[in-house]
Design goal:
The structure is a single chain. With 152 residues, the chain is mostly helical. The chain has 6 helices and 3 strands, in the order βααββαααα. It has helices at 20-28, 33-46, 89-102, 107-111, 115-121, 130-150, and strands at residues 4-5, 68-75, 80-86. The protein has a 3-stranded mixed β-sheet, covered by helices on one side. Its EC number is 2.8.1.7. GO terms for molecular function: cysteine desulfurase activity.
Amino acid sequence: MTQLSDTLLAPHPFGTEITKQQLIENFQQCKLWEDRYRQLILLARKLPNLSDALKQQHIEMSGCENRVWLGHQLLSDGRLHFYGDSEGRIVKGLLAILLTAVESKTPEQVSQTPLAELFQQLGLEQQLSGSRINGVKSLINTIQEIARTHIQ
């Protein structure tokens, strides 16, 4: 049940005001894991909290340590708007990274975006716990599945 709309649910700065290139540059300046951790927390603070009305069960991810919501809209011009939230600051920062990479792209573009590579570029993959890596992979799989459902 996807409604075409141009009114964004839960707008955020990721992918528009905050770009993938900016993320890469910010994380490349981080020499220590603690610096990357601080970057994730800063990103989490920039992702607005979802209203309770948007925290619907059908967009809540299962199997995550922290509660995570990931929703989307298909805009009238064929681009996707993703939005989300998490109760955990680090997870919310990781979600913000994913939103930066996929926001306002067509389903075809999203399906071709190498999301896992972005975490390698940012120097995060080797720093995350196994459960967080699995959580990120689950988010990536969900984003890719959403894109596939909208490819005609």
